[in-house]
Amino acid sequence: LLQSAFLANIGANYRPDQLIFIDEAAKDNRSLNKCYGYTPINVRARKKTIFIYGKRYTILPALSLDGLLAVDIME
User: Fold this and answer.
1) 67 Rama class: left (phi>0) / alpha (psi -120 to 50) / beta
2) Gap between the Cα atoms of 67 and 52, Å rounded
3) If we measure between CA atoms, which residue out of 34, 19, 28 comes closest to residue 59?
4) What residue segments make up the domains of the chain, in order of their start?
5) 35 with 49: CB under 8 angstroms?
6) Rounded distance between C-alpha atoms, residue 67 and residue 38, angstroms
7) 39 — phi, psi (to 5°)?
8) Eight-state DSSP code of residue 73
9) What is the mean pLDDT of residues 55-63?
10) Phi and psi of 46, rounded to 5°?
């Protein structure tokens, strides 16, 4: 109910070109390693992998209808 009220307020008081969205994402050498998997019933999931951290990059973009406004990339 609160989310619906919030969205109604945004829709009534702001134009789409006034909105800016941000979303954080990160990448390192472990990003492709899955924590969960599927196996037959009563069979434990196992995975052997080399444990490497490497460098981790975090990106924080700001997006609008006009495209990318700003980007901050941190190591």
Assistant:
1) left
2) 35
3) 28
4) 19-74
5) no
6) 38
7) -140, 165
8) E
9) 91
10) -135, 150
Quick count: other Cβ atoms within 10 Å of Cβ 56? 13
In tens, the pLDDT along 5-44 reads: 999 999 999 999 999 999 999 887 766 666 777 889 999 8
Q: How far apart are CA 2 and CA 23, in angstroms?
A: 22
DSSP string for residues in 30-64: TTT--S----STT--------------EEEEEEEE
pLDDT of residue 41: 92
Nearest to 47 by CA among 28, 64, 25, 32: 32
Asked if 52 contacts 30 with a C-beta cutoff of 8 angstroms, the reply is yes
Mean pLDDT of all residues in 38-57: 81
